[in-house]
Amino acid sequence: MKQLTPERLLDVAYDEALRGLAEGGIPIGAALFDTGGTLLGRGRNRRVQSGDPSMHAETDAFRAAGRRRDYRGTIMVTTLSPCWYCSGLVRQFGIGAVVVGESQTFSGGHKWLAGHGVAVTVLEDRRCIDLMSRFIAEHPALWHEDIGSADDLEA
Amino acid sequence: MKQLTPERLLDVAYDEALRGLAEGGIPIGAALFDTGGTLLGRGRNRRVQSGDPSMHAETDAFRAAGRRRDYRGTIMVTTLSPCWYCSGLVRQFGIGAVVVGESQTFSGGHKWLAGHGVAVTVLEDRRCIDLMSRFIAEHPALWHEDIGSADDLEA
C-alpha cells in the first residue's frame, strides 16, 4: 500500500491545475481529503471557464465535497497558498489541515491559518512554482483580476 | 429622488433573505452595489436549496455580479455579520464597504475588516435580528452546519 504523504495528495491538486490550464483557465487546483486519504472533492479555479469569480480552486473542491457537518478531520490540498477568501473558508469551517503546493508566486493566509490552529504544510513544490510563474508572466491582467489586485492593473 | 442610505440598501438583502426562507433555506441575503447605488448582484444562502455549502449569501451576490476588475467602489450589503469565509472574500477582492444588517445572532469578521480599512456599518436592524433568532431557534443543527461549528452539534 502506498504511503499517504503530502506530496501524493498534492498530485491530485496539481492534476486539477493542469486540467484548468488545458481549459484556458487559471492553473490552480485543490482537493479535499479525509485524514485516511479518501478523496472527498476536487476542483480548480473556474473564473475563465465558468465566468465565475467565486470559484477559486479551494472553493470548488469544497463545493464538490457536498454538505458535511464536521471538517476537523479533513485536509485541504491546494497548489498555491490560499488567498484570504479561501483561507477564510478553511477557518470558518474548521478544516483541520492544509497542504500548500507553493507560496513563492503568491502568499495568502496560510500563516494566519497556522496561527489559528490549522496544521499547515508548505511544500514549495517545483512543478507548482514553475506552473504559476509561467502563467503569471503570460497572463498578468487575468491573474491580478483573480486576486483582486486592482492597483497592479493600473501599473 | 430617493436618498441612498444603508437602510435602503439593506432592504434588498433582506428581501433575498425572505426569499431564501420561503424556499426552505437559511434566511441570509446579500447584495453588491456600486457607490452610486446601482445593484451589481444579489443572492442568498443556498446550502439547502442547491446542496451547495460554498454558497453563502455574500458569495452568491458576488458571483451574480460576474467578473470585475476592481471592487474598491463597491458595497457589500448582508443581513448578517459576514463569517470568516465571506469576510475573506471582502478582504481579498478589496470590496470598499460593508453594510451589516445585524451582528447579534452571529459575529464573524466585520471588525477584522474594519481593521483592514473596509468601511463597515452595522445597523443592528430589528427585522434581521428577529429573522435569524427565529431561524436559529427552530433549526439549530442546520445553522451550526452552515457556520462549521461542529462542537455545537455535539452538545
UniProtKB/TrEMBL annotation, chains A, B:
<protein>
    <submittedName>
        <fullName>tRNA-specific adenosine deaminase</fullName>
    </submittedName>
</protein>
<dbReference type="InterPro" id="IPR002125">
    <property type="entry name" value="CMP_dCMP_dom"/>
</dbReference>
<dbReference type="Pfam" id="PF00383">
    <property type="entry name" value="dCMP_cyt_deam_1"/>
</dbReference>
<feature type="domain" description="CMP/dCMP-type deaminase">
    <location>
        <begin position="4"/>
        <end position="120"/>
    </location>
</feature>
<dbReference type="InterPro" id="IPR016193">
    <property type="entry name" value="Cytidine_deaminase-like"/>
</dbReference>
